[in-house]
Design goal:
By secondary structure, this protein is an all-alpha fold. The protein is built from 17 helices and 4 strands. 41% of the residues lie in helices and 2% in strands.
Length: 446
């Protein structure tokens, strides 16, 4: 399987401060053909594969294949992972020294700006302490250090101090931060090869998500680029990718990534709607951990506030099929959406340069709805269509296969009084859902 390539330490390299390149909708198509896009998707797929269970046959062969589970065994972490976990702990401590403002507010708490400014001022010293240059494989002919690039992606991973929000674009920035360290060889020492990617996900991405959730709850950060009720999640996406892989079929080192089926011990996907199952599994699986956070911050029936996730819980192809769909949706709903990627920055480690092997993305409703910086006079930009949610429906929310929400006794007696199995999944206000994007994994078998 392909993995994110390391910088060649024998070649000259010039690091640079990442800059914004995506300024209008057409730039998204350019991004999808860039080296940065190729390397981001390569890194996601690489990490995703590592989260599938290891085949019992592989263990019986005495190969010494090591695996991690949740909570992970900290003794298996490399020095780099331990230092980066300490960095996240330092950022968490700064929340205590920047308590939320108690005054009236309509949206996010303004004290988040104090926390962010505190992190920003300390970032250079924190990186020098927890990501020392001697832990990286810097090309010998480099004219400068990679700290400017690392700092940009690190600071971009915790939300916007200006807008007081957090979303999947910020999550993408932290992923790029880890990708930079990978490219610089920071994860290439000490750990057994099987553990490198697992420790990045369970040892770093999971505690990062815990820190972000604490920031969201402490400072009531708004969702950034949210699709509203029809989005997958207001804030995160990666835990659904890696969490579904955790429950997929077991594989060996040479097996392809499964596209259907589940591990024999995996819970039913429908268990995400059961509060008792979520409570029991949220510390053992990233998918259930994300569902648990939704339950922490939202009230009401699960099918009502999270209809997309509710629909996915009815997929019959198992966690492998869900994982396949999550990867496709990450590409379509995160990396291909202007509101999400517009603030991503490009430097030498994730370059804007075109990938010579990239294929032009096919025309789609997503591409045609991207905003223009200078629309023709008198024309509405696609960023504000009359139905803004029409291009953000979940891929698997097909009208022919949508799960009907549970029926109460009162609804059985009064079919017109609420949602029922004879009606398609609809908005709780009675409005029909937006036109769905077709999802390959939610189809009924032919």
């Amino acid at each position: 399987m392909p993995s994110l390539a390391l910088l060649d330490p024998s070649h000259e390299h010039v690091f640079m401060t990442p800059t914004k390149k995506i300024n209008e909708g057409n730039d998204v198509s350019t991004f999808l053909m860039s080296k940065a896009y190729t390397e981001i998707m390569t890194f996601v797929i690489q990490l995703n594969r590592s989260m599938f269970p290891v085949s019992a046959d592989l263990d019986m062969q005495g190969t010494g294949s090591a695996t991690q589970s949740m909570p992970p065994d900290k003794s298996l972490f490399s020095d780099t992972v331990r230092r980066l976990r300490d960095l996240l702990d330092e950022l968490k401590k700064l929340i205590e020294s920047n308590p939320p403002d108690l005054g009236p507010r309509r949206f996010g708490n303004v004290s988040f700006r104090k926390w962010y400014a505190d992190v920003e001022s300390r970032a250079p010293a924190l990186l020098e302490t927890y990501v020392p240059l001697d832990s990286l494989r810097i090309p010998s002919k480099s004219e400068n250090t990679p700290y400017a690039e690392l700092e940009s992606y690190l600071l971009g991973g915790f939300g916007s101090a200006q807008r007081l929000d957090y979303g999947t674009g910020h999550e993408l920035s932290f992923l790029a931060f880890l990708g930079c360290i990978w490219k610089l060889g920071g994860f290439q020492s000490q750990e057994p090869s099987d553990l490198k990617e697992q420790n990045i996900v369970l040892g770093l991405i999971d505690p990062y998500l815990q820190l972000v959730r604490k920031l969201i709850k402490t400072y009531t950060l708004e969702p950034a680029g949210s699709h509203g009720v029809w989005g997958l999640d207001d804030h995160s996406f990666l835990p659904y990718v890696f969490g579904s892989a955790q429950y997929g079929p077991a594989i060996s080192t040479t097996d392809a990534v499964p596209t259907e089926g589940s591990h024999p011990t995996a819970p039913n996907p429908a268990d995400i709607t059961k509060a008792s199952s979520v409570t029991r599994l949220r510390t053992k699986n990233l998918y259930f951990g994300a569902i648990g956070f939704i339950n922490d911050v939202k009230s009401g029936p699960f099918w009502e506030h999270s209809p997309t996730l509710y629909d996915i819980s009815g997929v019959k192809g198992g966690w492998g099929k869900i994982n396949k769909g999550m990867l496709k949706m990450y590409n379509a709903e995160v990396l291909s959406k202007f509101p999400v990627v517009q603030h991503f920055r490009f430097g030498s480690l994730f370059p804007w340069d075109p990938d010579p092997n990239a294929r032009a993305p096919p025309p789609s409703a997503h591409a045609s709805s991207q905003p223009l910086s200078n629309p023709p006079p008198g024309e509405q930009t696609p960023a504000n269509p009359s139905n803004p949610s029409a291009t953000t429906a979940a891929p698997w929310a097909r009208s022919s296969t949508s799960r009907a929400p549970p029926i109460s006794t009162q609804q059985q007696r009064n079919p017109g009084g609420g949602p029922n199995r004879e009606r398609r999944l609809e908005d709780p206000l009675g409005m029909p859902p937006p036109p769905p994007t077709k999802a390959p994994w939610a189809r009924k078998p032919d």
